[in-house]
Each structure stands twice: as structure tokens, then as C-alpha cells.
Amino acid sequence: MRAARRSPLLTLGVVLALAACSKTPPPESDVAPESAATQPRTVLRVTNQNFYDMNVFLVHSGQRSRLGLATGNGLTSTFEFPSQWVVNGTVRILATPVGAQGADFTQPLQVRPGDVVAVTIQP
User: Fold this and answer.
1) Largest interatomic CA distance in the chain
2) In this structure, which of 45, 55, 104, 118 has its CB flanked by the most CB atoms within 10 Å?
């Protein structure tokens, strides 16, 4: 198994701490309290400037979860973080090219519910 390259393929763009959003409380009803309190979505936006399409993974505590495919040539793909991986600890974003060898990842990121993380994959 090849070791992951540590080249600057991924560049962390921006981590926005809290997305500004207003919430209107739901009308009084028989809704259970568990369903009324939902966590805000945490989103990853990947701009892939590389020629190759990239498989994008979220790595947390040594486990990885595939988020999806980021199409190449400057397109932006949006993925939602699994909610159980946002609460505790840090995560890393891993990208592997489709049809080529290698892999690269970001530095550890502290991500909270409602964050928007932007990553750019360089050519």
C-alpha cells in the first residue's frame, strides 16, 4: 500500500464558524420534543481545480466515510457532514483521484454544527 502524498493538493479555503440563519419557532402542536430540536446542517464545499475527478472522504478517529465525488476542472460540489462526526474532536478531508494514484488531506479541522467548510483541490 502506498503512503499518502503530503503535497499541497488540498488547500483549506475558509471555515465559517456559524452560518447566519434565522429560525422561526414551529407552531404549538403534538410534535415530540426530540423532533423539534434538530441540529443545523454542516456542509463541505469542494472546488476541484484538478483535471481528475476526486473521491472525497471525511476522516475522524481513524475511520473514513465517503462523502461523494468532486468533479474536476473547476466545478464545486457540496456535501453534508454526517452529524455524528461533527460533535466531538477533529476531522480531516481526504481526496483521492479517480483513475490515478495518490491521496492528499487537509490539516485537522475543528468543525461544529452549522459550519460551512470550503476546500479547494489544486491542479
Assistant:
1) 57
2) 104
Q: In what order do the strands lie in the sheet with 116-121?
A: 10-16, 116-121, 43-48, 75-80
Q: If you write DSSP's letter for every residue of 39-60 in order, what string do you get?
A: PPP-EEEEEE-SSS-EEEEEEE
- Phi first, then psi: give them for residue 72, nearest 5 degrees: -80, -175
What value does the mean pLDDT take over residues 51-68? 93
Q: What Cα–Cα distance (Å) separates residue 25 from each residue in 5, 18, 28, 57, 110? A: 48, 19, 9, 35, 29
Give the percent of the chain with pLDDT over 90: 49
What is the secondary structure of 58-112 as a DSSP string?
EEETTEEEEEEEE-SSSEEEEEEPPGGGTSSSEEEEEEEETTS---EEPPPEE--
Grid coordinates given for 117 = 467548510
